[in-house]
Amino acid sequence: MLNILLVGSGGREHAMAWKIKQSPKVNQLFIAPGNAGTAEFGENIAVGATDFEALKKVVLEKAINLVVVGPEVPLVEGLHDFFLADEELKSIRVVGPQKAGALLEGSKDFSKEFMARHQIPTAKYQTVTADTLEQGLAFLKTMQAPYVLKADGLAAGKGVLIIDNLPEAEASLKTMLDGQFGQASSKVVIEEFLSGVELSVFAITDGKDYQILPEAKDYKRIGEGDTGLNTGGMGAISPVPFADDAFMQKIEERIIKPTVEGLQKDNIPYNGFIFFGLINCGGEPYVIEYNVRMGDPETEAVMLRIKSDFVALLEAAADGTMAEQSIEIDERAAVTVMLVSGGYPGDYENGKVMSGFDQVENSLLFHAGTKQAGQEVVTAGGRVLAVSSYGANRQEALAQSYANAEKISFEGKYYRKDLGFDL
Ligand code: AMP
Ligand code: GLY
User: Fold this and answer.
1) Taking burial as the number of CB atoms within 10 A of a residue's CB, which of 22, 48, 74, 244 is the most buried?
2) What is the assigned CATH class of domain 2-98?
3) Under CATH, which architecture does the 124-191 domain have?
């Protein structure tokens, strides 16, 4: 029996906690720091995801056997490496790549070079620093609008600019290199704009073999019809209708396999999730970005469709036994609708009292930004609550989530009512 420590505090971690807790392999589950929802499936421990020393204490005190890392920041900062370098921790299994592998998400320049080296389809690009600004400006002139500029490093989802005209793109390139996103934009990747419909594909791997999890489509814009500002994600749908067997086959052969083989060829040890942010350009899949974790809110739909023991997959990733695993997928559709605070992704107020939880039927509620305040649950973030449902198809699943979204109340509640409109 395992004692598991899940690191993170969002809707993704609540959904993972729900799934982990169903496994007969689990003795105790701890979540650091967790949220008001995760407390339903385990014990929250008030330790931040990047406080490595404090996490060490938790692991030793609670006799943890398996650490599962939800968000990217601790991985990019080297949580797994920290465990391997510590005498008392090095035998504890960690699901999530070491620093070298986490660079797939932590550095856009690294990931573009990786894809070029392994012939993985992606947009044409050039990387620019302050020293090579002139070449960067010259490269921009060879491209067509819209122009895509990406901060090399992690920028909390804000580091990608898509700009309509050349003079603005030139100005933005300079501003980024001047420190618009701090150290993260000391290098900037200029990319060809790819036009198509995006989807999220996930694999869990031990670095040699992998299993493909259910794919999903995420809705990033705040406004209906995909308008307005980018958010962390307003909802997700799985399966994705255009990701049929033939398309998934292309993704596996051209992208997933070469990625895992590329990591091996480059001698980069890797275990955990690979999130392929893809775009369908006229029936051909291209990589927009890699992430080294699961997606949020995709996880709040994807976990519903995994029938297999999720903990067995996590263990196999850590133990290097993924070849012995298989994955059983629920045929039903699963969706998640994100309820957000009024004003998000701009300024919004926290601390709004929430009600209606007990009226919800036939949906799962995954807390994203909530807090227990005495007897009450209050909002504590822009993305507040993911309402996830099954259905015979996505329309039925969406109808279920929307009916329950109505029953939850808090001042300023907003959600998109058009998820799936483009499919
Ligand atoms: P990223 O952080 O790299 O996923 O970029 C954020 C968002 O910007 C993506 O989800 C896309 O919607 C958009 N994007 C990024 N790169 C491109 C590209 N080369 N062409 C078109 N859209 C892009
Ligand atoms: N839903 C997109 C992400 O997790 O980055």
Assistant:
1) 74
2) alpha beta
3) 2-Layer Sandwich (3.30)
